[in-house]
Amino acid sequence: MLKLLRFLRPFLGSVVLIFALLFVQAMTDLELPDYMSRIVNVGIQQQGIAGPVPEAIRDSQLHNLTLLMNETDAAEVLQSFRLLDRNSLGEAEYADYIARYPLLAQENLRIPEDGAVLSADAENALLRAETMLYFLNSGSEKVSQMISNLPAGTDIFAFLAKLPASAREQMLAQANEALAGISDSILTQTAVLAVISEYEAIGLDQSALQNRFMWQTGGMMLLIALLGSLCSVTVGLLAARVAAGFARDLRRAVFSHVENFSSAEFDRISTASLITRTTNDIQQIQMAVVMTMRILFYAPILGVGGILKVLRTDQSMSWIIALAVALLMTLIISLFTVAIPRFKMVQKLIDRLNLVTREILSGLMVIRAFNTEKHQERKFDDANRDLTRVNLFVSRLMVIMMPAMMLLMNGIMLLIIWVGAHQVDSGSMQVGDVMAFLQYAMQIIMSFLMVSMVFIMLPRASVSGQRIAEVLAMRPEILDPENPIAFPAGSPGIIEFCQVSFRYPNAEDNVLENISFTAKPGQTTAFIGSTGCGKSTLVNLIPRFYDITGGRILIDGLDIQQVPQKELRRRIGYVPQKGTLFAGDIQSNIRYGREDATDEDVRQAAATAQALDFIDASEQGFATAIAQGGANVSGGQKQRLAIARALVKKPDIFIFDDTFSALDYKTDAALRRALHRETSQSTVLIVAQRIGTIMHAEQIIVLENGRIAGIGTHQELLAGCPVYQEIASSQLSEEELAL
Hints:
The chain is of the alpha/beta class. The protein is built from 28 helices and 15 strands. A hairpin with a 2-residue loop joins strand 14 (699-704) and strand 15. Helix 16 (373-425) runs antiparallel to helix 17.
C-alpha cells in the first residue's frame, strides 16, 4: 500500500491543506464544550459574571475587601481601581455614570482602571476575599472556621482594621486554610455571588449584563460551529477530488503498464484478475484514501485534543477516560485480529467469481449446446457462496463491533454522570464542567469509533494495494533495447529465422526447435502441420508477443530484439486466429489499422477482404454499428473485417494466423486471389489447416512436434515429405493429388 503513495505527489498541496483544515475543524469542535460550559457556569449559574473582578464596587466595600488580603495584594488591588466621586468627574461623565450606577449619587464607587490588569496573586487574593465576604454576609459555618474567637456582634472589618498587621496576617492564614478544601471553580462561583450582591447594592442592571454575556458567548459558538462546518465541507470536497484523481492516475498507470505486458505476463495473472485489480481493487483504495483523509487524519487530533482538554477540565475523573480507551483498544484489537485474514480472502474470492463469470458468459453458446447449464450454475453458486460466506463472517464481526462500542459509550456516559454528580454535590466541580467533561469524553470515544471505521476498510484496501503493487512491480519480459536500431529506409521486409528455439515460461521442453527459413517479399510462406505443432507460436514470435529462447530472428538483417517494439509492429499487418473487433462501426474497425486512411482506402481494403457484399447489403453501410467483441456479426464476417483492417495498414509484412478457417471455399479462393494482387510487394506468412488455402504458396513449411519436417512448394512436398503427404491425402482427392 505504501508503494502507491507516490501517486499522491501531484495532490500533496491539497493533502496539506486538508490536514490544516482538519486541524482547524478539530479545534473548533474542541472549543464548543468549553463555551457550553461557560454558558452553564457563567451565563446561568453566575448570571453572566465571569470572574472575581467587579465592573464596579463601592469604595467602602473595596477597602473592606483589602482588609482580607495581605498588604502587597491590597495595595495592588486599590491601585487597579479608579475612584468615582462628584469632584473627580465632569458633568456629562458624572451623568453617564449615574445612569449606569444609581448608587453613585449617594456613595463613592470604584471601577477598574483602563488597561489595568491584576497579577495572578492579586486576583487570587481578591477571589478569596470576596469568598470570605460572602460567607461572612451569609452567616455560614465557614465563618467560625475562618475567624475563631470573634466576639459576638463585633463588626469584623472594624475589628480587622484595629488589629496589628501580624495578628491580621495570622487570622488571614487561618481563613485561607479553611478555604483550602474548596476547588477553584467553587471559589470563583462563591466569589461571584459576592459580586452579584454588590451589583444589587449599586443598582446595576444584571439582567442586561447576563443577556450580553449569553449573546456574546452564543454568537461565538455559532461562528465557531460555522467555521467547523465550512472546514468539514471543504475537506469533503478536497478529499473526494484527491481520491478520485489518485484513483484515476493509479488506474491509468496500471492500464498503461498492463499494455506493455507480453503474453507471458498474461499467463501469470489472468485477465479476470487484472480486471478485478483495475476496478474493484482500485475502488477499495479510493474509498480508503477518502476515509483516511477525512477521518484518520481528523480522529487522532480530536482524540488527543479531547484528552488534553479533559485533563485540564478535571483530573479527578480522568481515570474514566483511561478505562474507556483501554476497553476500546481491547475490543478493536480482538475483532481485527480475527477479521484481517478474512479481508485477504475476500479479494481472492472476488477474482475467482469474476473468472467463473467471465468463463461462463464467454462460453454460453457451448454451454447451451451441451445442456450443461445446471453444472455451470453449481460452479457459479459455489464461487458465489464462498465469497458470501466470508463477507458475512466479516460483516457479522463489524456488526458486533458497533453495538459493543455504543454500549461501552453509553456505559461511560452513565459513569461520568454518576461520578460527576457526586463531585458537584461535594462542591468540587460545577455542573458546566461535568457537562464539558462528558462531551470531551464522547469526542474521545467517537474518535476511536471513527478510527475503527477506517480500520474496517484499511485491511481490505491494504490487500488491494498489495495486488495493485504486484501488477506495477511485474516487469515485462519483452523490453525495448537500451540502444535501439532503426530499420533502414525502404527496407523490403525479408524475414530470417536462424536456428530459432522457443520454450514457454516454466515449461520443461521446447515448443519450437532449430527453426530456420527465409521469407521474402513478393512471396507467400505458408505453415502447416498437425494441431499443437507450433505454427501459431512460430508466427507470434515475429511481432515479439513472445521472445525466443534460442537463435535469432532477423528482418532485413536486423535482429528484432534490437529494434523498438513499436517500430517492429508498425511494419506488420497481423490477423489472429480469432478475429477481434471493437465497439464502434465497420469503418472505425477497418481504420483501426491506420487512422488517416481515406474512405477510398477503407473501401478498397474491404473489397480485397471480400467484405463489401455484406457491408453494402446493410442500410448503414460502413456506418453499421459493431457490438463489443463483434457479437453482432458472423465468424466469417469478423475474419474478413480483421483482414481488411490489416490491409488498410499497407505493411511490409502480413501474418495470417489461420485466418481463412471461418471462410467457405468460394470466399477463400476469391480472397486469396485478391490478396495476391494487393500483397505482391509484401512478405506474406500464412498459417493454415487446409492445404487448399496454401497449395499455391511459393514456400510451404511443414511442422511436426516443433521441428521442420519439410520445406518446399506443394509439388515438392508431395514428392518428398511424408508428413505433408499424410495431410494432403486426408484432405484432397486422388484427382487433386495427381494434378
